[in-house]
Design brief:
Belongs to the Mg-chelatase subunit H family. Residues 256-1387 form the CobN/magnesium chelatase domain. This protein is α/β, with parallel strands linked by helices and 1405 residues long. The chain has 58 helices and 39 strands. The chain has an 8-stranded mixed beta sheet, with helices on both faces. Strands 20-21-22-19-23-24-25 form a 7-stranded mixed beta sheet, with helices on both faces. Strands 5-4-6-7-8-9 form a 6-stranded mixed beta sheet, sandwiched between helices. Helix 16 crosses helix 18 (457-470), helix 28 (751-766) runs antiparallel to helix 29 (772-786) and helix 53 (1301-1308) crosses helix 54. The longest helix is centred in the middle third of the chain and has 23 residues, at 890-912.
Length: 1405
């Protein structure tokens, strides 16, 4: 028997495995000997990474002047030392990754040393290096005298174009061009003898036909198809002429050699091509005997590989485990019966090229911890087959406890094309946690360490975003390349972390539930108020009660935990009126400073921002305090806040501060004192994922990484917020579980607005009556004034108007405009109440959601919306009806109202047939389930939904046109009422695979439902979609028409835009497309359908000037869509460089002015895409307003300019560069500020984000004329997209939410949390006063009447949540004190008295 201890020691002695330690800037060997550590006293270490050598990257550049990649192709240049009289051929190659570098170098050196027939000069380029101008120029020079070009995996569009630009002109001259799987336009350059691929993707060819057929048969990716083609090569070649067959065979042999990857294979490839196709060598070989090509030395397409196995690979798991369990594990001290087993997915090319050090390192780490491993690979990029073959035993039971994919690619399809459905089904069948770790491809460790952005954007798109759609979690960087040799090197602390986290997930599967410790973490924001248990639209304590019940059912030890919401709240808060600063919040643990410093490795680094521990946050002056309550093995804890909310100086910092000591102590407690097996973060959202650090690809010095460390994290996140959920996944390694937001209902009408509708109804019946008709119009005008509608409708003067003297047309026009306005209010969607986890909507709530789903056309599914079908039955196009409705044409407003009511009636009829006596839906009955209805339809009887539309006044509606939308609504109803949230939480806590699902707006995309799944964003390269481009063009047209009409036909020269991550996910890039449309640029998909190209629209086609833009991207947008920031920047620069008249190109006009003003180039002056610095989020304006931590508006404006003034520059994509002067210079030219509202669930007073990033008063302060810019918002929440002024939007939002009894009564019904929700909207309304000055006085006045003047309401608020009520009183006083609300002295005195009364109540006086 082989002694594997000896093998391991030998490997160690040979220095076979090195890993980089960033702090010491040294390489540390990952000992393969550690696999035998348990039996070998010679090797003692807490880590398998324990042997130091020098760091070859230390001398390299670390930043690259804004480029991500600063490596040098000269490291890959090989020149023949003694060519003699041998003919020399020159090879230039371009590859995506660097693992071929060492094999190519070795192969070329072997030929130069041993071949009598040829010498070889060779130089290689990493694809990403071609962004660098100097490298690109050198590449051109090299290709100009190259004999052979080789390319592989060239899948980045703009770089593929560069390769084609250089190689195509030289193609005919060169002797051979070999391009392996890449973009079609690069593949078309293939040329070897008479064999080409010039028709690839364009017309018929034998190869193309074969590939197409394989794709149809089994969904193969291009590379999979190529591999299958290799296997069936003889069948293909018989259809080709003999000379072409020989050349085609050479190409396929070349591909096999390339896939083989070893120096021997590449030597055979170069020799074969040289002697058969390179002119001088071919000539010199006349009369000589050619070298006979060795057959490619290939590993099996799929197998199990282990670094110290006696056989290179195992083709079945039985043989592997026979060796591994019986020989290896006993020697290595691994207990086969109790050891967890980790499945590891590897990339075959790294094994072929023997570039496997990073793989060996992780295998060693896992085995040193007593774990078994099953490392598998696939020959192509479909890893589903090997997973199915090797991760199950002979009985079909999974043999792994966790899976780690080390390739970084999607499970099926790699970088070119993916099959996410197939991947997630394979992973769900296996049902194990699926982690996708990422090797650095385009950066050395030094470059990654020094980059604030972290992982390269191309890698984020290909190797983070795409695996997430499969259901992958935890994109931990575990390896990178060494700068000089290109070889992969493991990163010691990351490998340790990855091993720790993988085994902790495995532990969740194997540990008995009764022994598991679960830390439920709730949030409190803003802090120091009645806000414990904050989460967007979630009834937190009621939901915790539901989770506790489920935990008890599943056998967890929850001690004496109560199941009553108020009792849970009481136990955590110790008093529902508690404040964090008072001792009334329950203290779970007091951590001495000695214990804190001992258990928190980075504690001293926090002193720079916060001084020595304990500080004054989460502290009793002596100890650090952890708030919460333990029940058995379940701890419910309160996550501390950021800590700088009320500090004006800290809020102004351009970069966010580190967490404070109390925050660090909380997570230290969870991991090291409570010893949680998992943490459940409860609701949207906390602060952990927004702590400082890299955007994506955390290092060990990033605070989210340090805080969560090895704790598995499940995170309940609102389904409508995929962008911030994605930040939580990437930055805090959380597996998300989506929860439903409350169903949106129509806002309805109340008080004077309800009276107005009744008056209008009377007028419609009496409009021809000259006696009563005008009198009713006078009442309508008077009531409209009392409801403050004069600000939204062009009403005649109240004191002088008499409808009797007006024309019938004018009376209709006035009534039509008022009717249109109140119907906008009534039909506005309003999420009512709060959601409780695990409670599906009632039938009534489902109707509200389905009505909104039914209104949208879905052309991609060939589904017409209900309004379109109903309008068609009376000979009208619904878009015409909307247009007439929007301008107040009375007949169209009335028809639109009737259509809306008919749609509701039809949906109600559909839902009623599945509703039980409890008003809930247990099972959805479809149009085909009821046989009585089926036969009734055959006899001419109408379906219930068709009959409902007929009864609503549309007798000619066509039933067959309803079929598509009805079937779709039945599917959606099943999704809406499905209940998977508690199940999703438990699956994660049990160490299972949670199925992925998109996040977003369930009305636009019902695939968001059912909730309770692992939420992901979307493929960033997929946006903007064509549908989004079309909607955006309509919105831009409406905006520019409105602006032109208001300004004597003049267009604005510059518009300031705000872009949000979630909005662009929900709308598939509508606001992104609006930016491009204003500039006059259109996005163009590449040959793989990815949107990463732009084209200038000619001015004559555009029909208007190009409008300049200043784009402020949220920090979340920056993290998720940095490639789209690149797209926008390229588009704007393209417009700036267009040689066009300045009066027709405002982008160029301003960029030229700024270039002169700032002394920079035109391209640099044209930077218009701004955001926060990497790792920082928001302008902190919301934080300041929510916490009262601001002196005046100047402070807020300074915060915005300081924190949002980091420019993205496509010419330097590796950094966000502070460009304060350029930012100010661009903003001072702005005429209009603009934002988008895209869904009913989150409007402009629901969250602080919208005003936090609003630059209206900032622009006013910067403009030379100090004129306030016009402010507009696009509302695409319904099929009838509209553009309104910001003031109109604030009024509409106030009327439908803050001032609406349906809203505030619904919130009050939920108790404690509901009062907080009402106060939040009042505070956010004041936020708009502070940043834009667009809140009417009546909004505050009416809110005061509703919440303060009414003694009964006042008492209810005080009793339910006194802290939140105190905040409400404070907000009213602050609004008055800052000049935003003008009211009576009596009101102010009452508020001051009330404040003192509430203070006494809270203090217990």
């Amino acid at each position: 028997m082989v002694n594997f201890k000896a093998t391991a020691v030998a490997l160690l002695a040979a220095g076979a495995c090195t890993a980089w330690q960033p702090n010491a800037a040294t390489f540390i060997s990952s000992s393969r000997a550690s696999i035998a550590r348990a039996n070998s006293q010679a090797i003692q270490s807490s880590s398998a990474l324990n042997m130091v050598v020098s760091d070859p990257t230390a001398a390299g550049p670390a930043g690259g002047g804004g480029m991500f990649t600063a490596s040098n192709s000269e490291n890959r240049r090989v020149l023949p030392e003694n060519p003699g009289d041998r003919p020399t051929m020159k090879i230039v190659y371009v590859v995506l990754e660097s693992q071929y570098q060492s094999s190519m170098t070795a192969a070329v050196k072997r030929i130069n040393a041993g071949s009598e027939n040829m010498a070889v000069e060779c130089v290689g380029y990493l694809l990403e290096e071609l962004r660098n101008d100097d490298a690109f120029d050198q590449f051109k020079k090299d290709v100009e005298d190259a004999d052979v070009f080789i390319g592989s995996l060239i899948f980045v569009q703009e770089l593929a174009e560069k390769v084609v630009e250089v190689v195509q002109p030289q193609r005919e001259r060169m002797d051979a061009v070999l391009v392996f799987p890449s973009m079609p336009e690069v593949m078309r350059m293939n040329k070897i003898g008479s064999f080409t691929m010039k028709n690839l993707g364009q017309s018929k060819s034998v190869v193309a036909d074969f590939m197409k057929k394989k794709k149809q048969e089994d969904g193969s990716s291009f590379e999979e198809g190529m591999l299958k083609l290799l296997r069936t090569l003889p069948k293909v070649l018989k259809f080709l002429p003999s000379d072409k067959a020989a050349d085609a065979r050479t190409f396929m042999m070349s591909f096999q050699y390339w896939l083989g990857g070893s120096p021997e294979n590449l030597e055979s490839l170069i020799t074969m091509v040289g002697q058969d196709y390179v002119g001088p060598i071919k000539e010199s070989m006349v009369g000589k005997e050619k070298v006979v090509a060795e057959e490619p030395v290939l590993l099996p397409d799929k197998a199990i590989w282990h670094p110290v196995a006696p056989d290179i690979v195992f083709e079945n798991s039985a043989k592997y485990f026979e060796w591994y369990n019986n020989e290896f594990c006993p020697d290595a001290g691994i207990d086969v019966k109790t050891a967890p087993t980790v499945g590891i997915i590897l990339q075959k090319s790294h094994i072929n090229t023997k570039d496997d050090t990073h793989y060996v390192s992780l295998i060693s780490e896992l085995e040193s911890r007593g774990s078994r491993v099953v490392p598998i690979y696939s020959g192509g990029l479909d890893f589903s087959g090997p997973v199915e073959d090797f991760f199950y035993d002979a009985s079909g039971n999974p043999i792994v406890d966790t899976v780690i994919n080390l390739t970084g690619f999607a499970l099926v399809g790699g970088p070119a094309s993916q099959d996410h459905d197939k991947a997630s089904k394979v992973l769900k069948k296996l049902n194990r946690p699926y982690m996708c770790a990422v090797p650095l491809v385009f950066q050395s460790f030094e470059e990654w360490q020094s980059s604030e952005l972290g992982l390269h954007p191309i890698q984020v798109a290909l190797q983070v975003s795409l695996p997430e759609i499969d259901g992958a979690i935890e994109p931990i960087i575990f390896a990178g390349r060494e700068g000089a040799t290109g070889r992969s090197v493991p990163l010691a602390d990351r490998v340790n972390l990855l091993a720790d986290r993988a085994l902790k997930w495995a532990n969740l599967r194997t540990k008995p539930n009764v022994d598991k410790k679960i830390a439920v973490t709730i949030f409190s924001f803003p802090p120091d108020k009645g806000n414990v248990g904050t989460a967007a639209y979630l009834d937190v304590f009621d939901s915790i009660a539901a989770v506790l019940k489920q935990l008890k059912t599943d056998g967890y030890d929850i001690g004496d935990a109560p199941f009553d919401k108020s009792e849970i709240m009481e136990s955590v808060l110790n008093d529902p009126e508690a404040r964090i600063s008072s001792p009334e919040l329950n203290v779970a643990y007091r951590m001495s400073t000695d214990e804190y410093y001992e258990l928190t490795p980075y504690a001293e680094e926090l002193e720079e921002n916060w001084g020595p521990a304990p500080g004054n946050l989460n502290s009793d002056g002596q100890n650090l305090v952890v708030y919460g309550k333990q029940f058995g093995n379940v701890f419910i804890g309160v996550q501390p806040s950021f800590g700088y909310e009320g500090d004006p100086m800290r809020l102004l910092f351009a970069k966010s501060a580190s967490p404070h000591h109390g925050f660090a102590a909380y997570y230290t407690y969870l991991e090291k004192i409570f010893q949680a097996d998992a943490v459940l973060h409860f609701g949207t959202h906390g602060s952990l994922e927004f702590m400082p650090g890299k955007q994506v690809g955390m290092s060990g010095t990033c605070y989210p990484d340090r805080l969560i460390n090895s704790l598995p994290s499940a995170y309940l996140y609102a389904a409508n917020n995929p962008s911030e959920a994605t930040i939580a996944k990437r930055r805090s390694y959380s597996a998300t579980v989506s929860y439903l937001t409350p169903p949106a209902e129509n806002a309805g009408l109340y008080k004077g607005l309800k009276e107005l509708k009744e008056l209008i109804s009377s007028y419609q019946g009496l409009r021809e009556n000259e006696a009563r008709g005008p009198a009713i119009v006078n009442s309508i005008v008077s009531t409209a004034y009392s409801c403050n509608l004069d600000k939204d409708v062009d009403l005649p003067a109240l004191d002088s108007y008499d409808a009797k003297g007006d024309t019938a047309e004018r009376r209709d026009d006035i009534v039509g405009q008022v009717y249109s306005e109140i119907m906008q209010i009534e039909s506005r969607l309003l999420p009512c109440g709060l959601h409780t986890v695990g409670v599906p909507p009632t039938a009534e709530e489902a109707i509200a959601t389905l009505v909104n789903i039914a209104q949208l056309d879905r052309p991609e599914d060939k589904i017409e919306g209900l309004p379109r079908v109903i309008a068609a039955s009376v000979g009208r196009d619904i878009n015409e009806v909307y247009r007439g409705n929007n301008v107040g044409i009375l007949d169209d407003v009335e028809l639109n109202t009737k259509i809306t009511e008919a749609s509701r009636a039809a949906v109600r009829a559909l839902v009623d047939q599945s509703t039980n006596s409890d008003g809930r839906i247990k099972e959805v009955n479809t149009m085909f389930d009821d046989m009585g209805s089926f036969f009734g339809n055959m006899m001419g009887k109408k379906s219930p939904w068709t009959q409902a539309i007929i009864d609503a006044g549309f007798p000619k509606v066509q039933e067959e046109r309803l079929t598509g939308v009805v079937k779709y609504l039945e599917f959606c109803l099943k999704q809406v009422v499905a209940n998977q949230e508690l199940g999703g939480i438990m699956q994660l806590l049990n160490g299972e695979f949670l199925m992925p699902a998109p996040g977003g707006d369930p009305i636009r995309n019902p695939d968001v439902l059912p909730t309770g799944r692992n939420m992901h964003a979307l493929d960033p390269s997929a946006i903007p979609t064509q549908a989004a481009v079309e909607v955006s063009q309509d919105v831009v047209r409406k905006l520019l028409e409105k602006l032109s009409d208001d300004n004597d036909g003049q267009f604005p020269e510059s518009i300031a835009f705000t872009l949000w991550g979630t909005d662009n996910i929900k709308t598939y890039g509508e606001s992104l497309a609006q930016v491009l449309a204003l500039v006059g640029v259109k996005p163009v998909p590449d040959s793989l359908g990815r949107v990463n190209k732009v084209e200038l629209i000619p001015l004559e086609e555009l029909g208007r000037p190009r409008i300049d833009v200043v784009v402020s991207c949220s920090g979340v947008f920056r993290d998720l869509f940095i490639n789209q920031m690149n797209l926008m920047d390229r588009a704007i620069k393209m417009a700036a460089e267009a040689d066009e008249p300045l009066e027709q190109n405002f982008v160029r006009k301003h960029a030229l002015e700024q270039a002169e003003e700032l002394g920079v180039s035109l391209r640099d002056a044209a930077c218009r895409v701004f955001s926060n610095s990497a790792g920082s989020y928001s302008a902190n304006v919301g934080l300041a307003i929510e916490n009262g931590g601001w002196e005046d508006e100047t402070q807020l404006q300074d915060q915005f300019l300081t924190r949002k003034g980091f420019a993205f520059n496509a010419d330097k994509p590796g950094m966000m560069e502070q460009q304060a002067e350029l930012f100010k210079s661009s903003l001072k030219r702005v005429d209009v500020t603009f934002q988008n509202l895209d869904s009913s669930e989150i409007s402009i007073t629901d969250v602080s984000h919208y005003y936090d990033s609003d630059p209206t008063k900032v622009v006013q302060g910067l403009r030379d004329d100090k004129k306030k810019p016009m402010s507009f918002m696009a509302d695409t929440t319904t099929a009838n997209a509209q553009v309104r002024s910001l003031a109109e939007t604030v009024r509409l939002d106030a009327r439908t939410k803050l001032l609406n009894p349906k809203f505030y009564d619904g919130m009050l019904a939920t108790g404690y949390e509901g009062v907080r929700e009402i106060q939040k909207r009042l505070r956010n309304t004041m936020g708009w006063s502070a940043t834009a000055g667009e809140v009417d006085n009546f909004v505050f006045e009416d809110a005061n009447s509703v919440f303060i003047d009414d003694p009964e309401m006042q008492q209810k608020l005080l009793d339910t949540n006194p802290n939140a009520f105190r905040d409400m009183v404070t907000t009213f006083l602050e609004a008055n004190g800052r000049g935003y609300w003008d009211t009576s002295d009596e009101n102010i005195e009452r508020l001051q008295e009330l404040y003192a009364e509430v203070e006494d109540r809270i203090e217990g006086v």
